[in-house]
Structures are given as structure tokens and as C-alpha cells.
Amino acid sequence: MPQKSSKRKMLLILPPIIIGFATIMVMQNNRQAPTVIDSGEPVRLVRTLTLEARDFTPLARGYGEVRPAQVWQAVAQVAGRIVETHPRLDNGEIIRQGETLLRIDPVDYELNLAQARIQLAELEVQASNTRASLQIEQRNLALAEKEFNRLADLASKGTVSQSSADAAERTMLQSSAQVQNLKNSLSLIPSQKNLQQSRITQAERDLENTWIRAPFNLRVSGLVVENGQYVGKGQSMFSGDAVDRVEITAQVAMSALKNLFTEDMSIPADLHSLSTDMSLITGFKPSIKLDMGDGQYAHWDAEFVRFADAIDSKTRTMGVVVAVDKPLAQIIPGRKPPLSKGMFVEVEIAGKAQADTILVPRTALRNGHAYVMNHENRLEIRTIKRRFEQQSMSVVSEGLKAGERLVLTDLVPAVQGMLLKSTLATGE
Q1: What would the DSSP string read from start to end of 45-75?
Q2: Which CATH topology does 48-55+355-422 take?
Q3: How many helices (H) and strands (E) does the chain have?
Q4: Domain 245-353 falls in which CATH fold?
Q5: Each residue of 6-35: pLDDT tens digit?
């Protein structure tokens, strides 16, 4: 029995082994030879931007506070009590040009003017009387001379005494002195009249200065006086801020400001032209922007006025003064408030448009080099020259031209002549 059991186990194991061996032999006979695959040159996928020559306007930005273009200080030019004030003379009120703001008691100055005019009239009478007296004295002098000549002739003949001739001569000399005195008085009267006329002019000016009128449309600020108060000569009473024109002195970085000046800009040597035509020379076109909150902005067109007198040594910025005319007329309720004193605004200054400019993203330039995909789809590493940068863009003056494909992908490593494939056929 044990031998039969062993034979039976062998019969059960043997068939699977034979089947497995046969399967291996069949697979060995049907095996194909290994295939050699040619991988070829590797290709890198890159993003490209087709360059275009376009018009480009350089910009510079700065910030500053709104200030009135004119600030008038109301200073009392005469002393006295305030007897009249404008019904709306108060801080923040807007008063039109020519309206009376306040008046100082004019009584004393009216009296001074009347006295000066009376004194001038007295001089006229004095001049008339002096001229009449002069005519009389001249006639007396003529008679005295005639009498002296007659007596002197008789004295020489011994007909009359010499003392009579001497007395006649004395009378003649006295009359001559009186005539000379009257002539001197008449010669002084014009100077006296001029002096008196100056006093009248001063009295008239003092009387006129008792009226304080608005020299332009203004907003009252810094009011320190009231009706009935006495003010002394030279005392400051309030200020008037012009409302028809405001100015902003924006501090602009020199690195941004220099980009607004082009090589073809002609700067005249004549100081008068330089000061009066600076806006035309530079071609600057500034605009004002005010943050209204919630992503809303108010905008104003502005006018370039002048540069500040110095550069800030700490921030390396220069003040650029721009102005906005008639800001009150530009109010849009809820969207565009009046440009008021103290507002902090952004000033954007646009220079002259530059034609045929090559603009590229700043991130596409790497240490003074740019990657270009040539017509053979291969990489060229170019040395470029940047004119300047503005926000996220760079203006390239040398090394790139319109129509070329700029590689935006950062290649590591970047090998000259490597094969590329663009995922963008045109500019973004």
C-alpha cells in the first residue's frame, strides 16, 4: 500500500511540470528580437512673446497735498474799530471777488482828507495873493528906482542934498528886497502844493484802506477778528485761499522723472523762455487721482506749472508743481469732490509719446540678457541694453527688434542653440 501511494503522488506532480516546461519552450521560440529606438534631440517647451514696435508714453508718479494757488493775508493797513463785516465772514465760507469783507471806522481818515484838501486850497489862495502883492511891489520898485535916479541926478548937480539921494536909494533897495521875497515865496508854493497833494493822496489811500474787499474768489480761513473789535495797523485779521485754482507739489523720484526727458527735447538758454514756456518745452501732461475708497477713484486733468527749487536730499525726489483750474466747477456729487486744501492725492505725469518702442516684461530679462527663439526654433542668448523700466515693463533700446520671439520661460540650464518649441505663437 505505501508503494502505490507514492506512485500516485508522482503521477499527480509530473503533468504540471511537463506542461510548464513545454510553455517555456514555446515562449522561447516565439520571442522577438529587441527593438532599438532612436530618441533624437531633446526639445524644450517654452512660452514666447512676439515683439512689436509700438508707441509708448513714459510715466512718472508722485504724491502731494492740495494747496490753493494763491493765499491772501488780510492785514489792517490802518488802525481803528471794525464797524461792518460781511454777513458770511467766517472760516470756510466762500466769498466772491470784489465783495466787502469788513470796514474799519473811516471818520478819522475822512477828517484827515478834508483837512488836507483845505490846506491845499489855502495854498492856492496864498499863491494868488502873493502874485498880486508881487505886482504891487514891482510897481513900487519901478517908482522907487525912478525917484532914486531923479534925486541922484539932482544931487550930482548940487540941487539937492546927498542924504535925500541916499534915502531914495534905501527906499528902492527895500522895495527890491520885498519883490525878491515875494518871488521866493511864489517859487516855493509848487513844492508845497506837491507835498500837500501827497498828503491828500495818502489820506485818500487811508480812507480807501478802511474797506477790506476780496481780491479774488476766496475761502475764508484763520479768522481772528469780529465786528466792533479794534485792530491796529499791521494786524493780521484772516486769510483768503483762492478757490479758482489749486496747486499740488508732488514729490517724484528722480529715477522716474528722468525718463520723461527725451534726447530730442530742446532746452532754450534764454531764462525768460525757460521760465514761461516750460510746459510747452517738456510736453508734460499731468493728471490727478484721489482714492475714494472701495476701489473708486476721482480724476482731474492738470497743468504742469514748474519744478520745485531743490531736490530732497533724503528721499532723492524733486517737487513737481501742477495746477487744476476751477475745481469747484468739476464737482460730481458722490463721485468727484472738490479739490480742497490738505487733500493727499496721486499725481501721474505723462511725457511725450515715443514711437517704435520695444517693450518687454521685466521678468523676461536676466542680468542684461534676453532669450530669443530664432527662425530655426533654437535659443539665442542676446545681450540687451535697457533704456529704463516702468512698472512691470522694460524699454529696450538695443538687442531686440520687432517680430522676434522673446522666450518668457526661465530655462535652467539655458544652452545657446538648444531646440525649443513654443506654446504661444503670438504675443500674450
Answers
A1: EE-EEE--EEEE--EEEEEEEEEES-EEEEE
A2: 2.40.420
A3: 6, 26
A4: Elongation Factor Tu (Ef-tu); domain 3 (2.40.30)
A5: 556 565 666 666 666 666 666 666 665 555
